[in-house]
Specification:
11% strand, 8-stranded mixed sheet, two-stranded antiparallel ribbon, alpha/beta
């Protein structure tokens, strides 16, 4: 069978908050280490939803999975190091805007009640006070500013139209409920960092993001992966990573997980997390089945943690040690998944000129750290080519700045 060109390869990344982003980085490092014939920063198309949009943005801008591991997880050896506290700053502007509206809302509610107290009960009359509740607890403006600085460095860009690869960041229009692929024609004028802010605006945690007079929230509200965006753009081999799956304690018991365990014992956060995971995972599975029918000539490969993965479900992502442990866990789980599906994946990958590196899969002692030092993922020629590309990008930007307009 004739091999398809490498330009038909894409990456689609689902959401999952900081937890999901860390898992995706570890999984992508494993894929880059174990696959030959594909460079994850030189694919044709990238699609990101929610926190997956952050990682997709990095890949499209030439940040390798290991670059992002150093930046977001290891916290060392990178020009820009991410501080998780950027995501925990209170949405003070939103609080102030809502508080200013309280007197008028209270007056309207009181007047409505006094006009006809027998027809309009206290609760019915005063329920409009709910409009004073903030639409988000935290403010992701600081993270957007961090991303803007990151993408302003030489060789990077905050402009969809200047990227060498296609990048789509999917958000949801709050007032229509429709998915909007920033980066597509008509939506590519929006700065990438602003689009990331929109697709990561999880309702309740972050306020909706205003763009061109419309408000946008997390893209996962409509679909989990939005892989169809990449498939419609022509991707024939699509690597998908979904970090959130519902937890199954019965499966975890096989790994010495305590018997008699219930998520009820862990309170509301665990119950809400399980509910959210179950909904988005069921929806994603439905989408995966549909892709096989709508895009029969494309191969869609999904990588995700097992449902008995307690470490993934209960991980603490706000400590450096916890982040490193989770990234390493994702790395090992993805390598194990590749080993387990070796016979199934080999012919699929071969159709696109991609092979599995048996030396990587055969090494049970391999870690993210050991791969960085002892077993680099790229040949010297590939690394030299990438550095040349970056130099040419910087030279092109300098020339444009010096040339007169018109």
């Amino acid at each position: 069978m004739k091999r398809r060109g490498r330009r038909s390869i894409g990456v689609a990344l689902a959401g999952g908050g900081p937890l999901g982003a860390i898992y995706e980085i570890g999984a992508l490092v494993a894929l880059q280490d174990a696959l030959r014939g594909v460079d994850l920063v030189a694919c044709q198309v990238y699609v990101g939803v929610s926190s997956g949009g952050v990682i997709a943005t990095g890949l499209a801008n030439g940040f390798t999975p290991r670059d992002m591991h150093r930046m977001f997880i290891a916290g060392e050896g990178a020009d820009h190091v991410f501080d998780p506290e950027l995501l925990l700053r209170p949405a003070l502007a939103e609080y102030a805007r809502r508080m200013v509206a309280i007197p008028d809302l209270l007056f309207q509610a009181l007047r409505r009640y006094l006009e006809d107290p027998f027809s309009h009960g206290v609760f019915e009359s005063f329920q409009r006070l709910a409009r004073a509740l903030p639409t988000g607890l935290f403010d992701n403006v600081a993270f957007s500013a961090f991303l803007t600085r990151l993408l302003s460095a030489p060789g990077r860009t905050n402009d969809f139209r200047k990227l060498r690869r296609k990048l789509f960041l999917v958000a949801t229009d709050l007032d229509s409920g429709k998915a909007v692929p920033f980066g597509a024609a008509g939506w590519d004028h929006v700065p990438i960092a602003r689009a990331v802010q929109a697709t990561t605006a999880l309702p309740g945690l972050f306020p909706p993001v205003e763009i061109d007079g419309r408000y946008y929230v997390d893209g996962a509200l409509m679909k989990t992966l939005h892989a169809s965006v990449a498939l419609k753009d022509g991707a024939k081999l699509l690597f998908c990573v979904n970090p959130l799956v519902p937890f199954n304690a019965d499966l975890a018991q096989k790994d010495d997980f305590p018997r008699g365990f219930s998520l009820m014992d862990h309170g509301l956060p665990a119950v809400m997390s399980q509910t959210f995971r179950a909904i988005i995972h069921s929806r994603m599975r439905t989408g995966m089945d549909r892709y096989r029918t709508e895009f029969p000539d494309a191969d869609v490969l999904l990588f995700e943690p097992g449902q008995g993965d307690a470490e993934m479900f209960f991980a603490n992502v706000f400590s450096y040690s916890g982040r490193r442990q989770l990234a390493e866990h994702a790395y090992q789980c993805t390598l194990a998944d590749l080993r387990r599906r070796r016979e199934q994946l080999t012919p699929v990958l071969a159709r696109h000129g991609v092979t599995l590196d048996e030396a990587v899969l055969g090494s049970r002692q391999r870690t993210i750290a050991s791969g960085m030092v002892k077993m680099p993922q790229l040949s010297d020629l590939q690394e030299a080519t990438r550095e040349l590309d970056r130099t040419l990008d910087r030279l092109n930007a300098a020339l444009k700045a010096r040339l007169p307009a018109g």
